[in-house]
Amino acid sequence: MKQLLNRRNFLKGGLAATASAAVLKNKKTEAHSFEGYPDGMGVLVDLTRCVGCRSCEAACNKEQGLPEPAKPFDDFSVFDEMHHGQKRRTDETAYTIVNRYDVPEIDHPLFRKIQCNHCEEPACLTSCFVNAYTKTPEGAVIYNPKVCVGCRTCMIACPFYIPTFKYSSAFKPRIMKCIFCYDTRLKDGKPPACVEACPQEALTFGKRTDVLKMGKQRIQQKAGKYVDHIYGEHEVGGTAWMYISDVPFDKVGFDTHVPKEPILNSVKEFLGIVPMVLTIWPGLFVGFHLLATRKDKVKEMKEAEDRNNNDEKEGQA
Amino acid sequence: MKLFAKDRPEIPIVDHLKADGTEWTIKEKLWLGLSIDEYKKQFFRNPVNWLMISIFSIGIPLILGRYVFGLGWVTHSSNDYPWGLFLGFGLFGMVPLSASGFMLGTTVELFGRKDFHSIERLALLNGLLGYFFAVIFLEVDLGMPWRLPYPMFVSLGPAAVLFLVAWHVATYLSVQVAEVLPAFFEWIGWLQGKRIIRKWVLGLTISGIILSTLHQGALGALFTYAPAKVHPLWLSVNFQWIHYFCSSIFAGLSMVIISSTLIKNFMGWRCDDGFKDNLDYVTIGLAKGASYAMITYLVIKLVAIAHDQEWAYLLTGWGSYYMLELGVGVVLPMFMFAVGIRNQWVALIRLGAFITVIGIIWNRLNTALVCYNWQMYQEIPHWKEVWITVTIYSLYFLTYRFIVYRLPIVYGWQGEK
Predict the structure, then answer these.
(1) Which chain A positions have a beta carbon within 8 Å of B143's beta carbon?
(2) Predicted ipTM?
């Protein structure tokens, strides 16, 4: 009879299968990495052009129907406000904020606008356990208040401190954040309100790939003017809003320590062990149980045997 | 209780029958076999109850206020620190201290160490209540607490770590209820229920291990969403889940040591001889288990620092704080355990267990609050937030005591078994 499988062949086959599985698996994970929607829109922010007029803040406030602020938008004393030693940030009344930075090397102040950067692979989205966030093909990261539970993990996960919570409401709290004017403008291909309002053309709206090219061109054309880096090209896996600047980014309040890959990548380590624990633990611990209690079992069997023997003896007698 | 136990042999209740041979009703069992006047008398002569009353008199209005005026009314409503004490203490602190249930379930049911049987029920109860109150803390903290089942049934985000936490806590809570039910069945006298659970005990125990491994780890993994925010010494992207899982082992064991010590000293009337006589032996055994987990924990903490090349941070102020936390919270009690085990000094072990529990809560608060946003500023919780946290913890204490007073947790039921 033909021998179907000897030991050597079995081992060979096993090794080959394992190796191919490893290789195939690698290819697969590569295909899994998400490069963003090809036609996603983006904005290039040129810090050298911003004069801190706060028109964008005012336009955002109006467009999104946010409450009127305590100080009007032409009051520039807000630039000196500090909370806990920090400059102003987004909150439930403001989706975008402009802050002033005095950099000693240059003779004029610099201004930086913050709002949601609309990441290609958003941390808020990947950390949300009720799928309240969506990255639309147009490039916006939008939020659905109807399913949000209010756990605020997205605020923990966002590397840019953008989502804020409506703490003031007991019955209708929600996350408040910039949505790229998705409902009212972006959906129809129009630029967001803040971009339209900018009198200095500091904000340029277009396809992310196009504005990225434009940023690179500007850096090249005016050699030496700009820092050779586009903040948001690779930060946390790439963002729809990107910045170019003539001073190092950490001097104008940017966090330059954020990872250059999506936040999700640092969580994958744990997510990977979950199926392992689920499949290996049951068998492993049942095995432990059988091992640990085998002495008792042996003892029981012996006792039963003895009893049988005794019974037999008694029967014979 | 001692007051009445002296002249009335049927108190405390240990079986279904009164002295005259009739059966206790459930209502009488709930009142501990005392008349209402007697119950009041023992309640008001206990100074702890007066402390509770004073905590609740302010705490309950604060909690109601939170649901009427919003979270902003009781917290600093910080957008930089979205998680405050409710989660930092209530969820991240309470859950590791509740690892006792699966630890002793495993020891007794899975490894067949019947010598720890006398503490098993207390450990299971400690686990169940810790989890239950972690959920209560969560319900105070969630923006929309009425949507708690959403991640389960309405809108699912299965790729998120919190999704795992939610599912595991929910299923594990049910497993723990099932594990504690036999005590309840004995007490109400429904033996069939107990037998059913008995058949399932191995399955329950193993699912307990799986669920505990995963969600103790998942609580740590939640912080890997903030790799740029938490101080690198308190966050290891690769090892965070192991740190959290491993530290929960000695945290849970130490919590049982504390709770059994308190019960033995302040509730001696409720314990039977089996519990009392065994306790020193069991405590030493628990301390041994905890010591193994502690040394493992220290090693993987060290591995994490080596892996991420964080030695330089140890020389900074944060580094000193880090070493203080590990030194006082883990190394010191580990030595106390070692000396205590060697010389059979149970009192030293108990003190060590107390320090361990404080150390674990300290570690969780450090990760969630103190060293979170370490490059920005430190948030000091609002006094109302602190008071609500203390109130809910007191509620936890009262529930714990209520159950231990009644169910056969630290005594064996004398009626039919």
Answers:
(1) 148-152, 165-166, 173-174
(2) 0.89
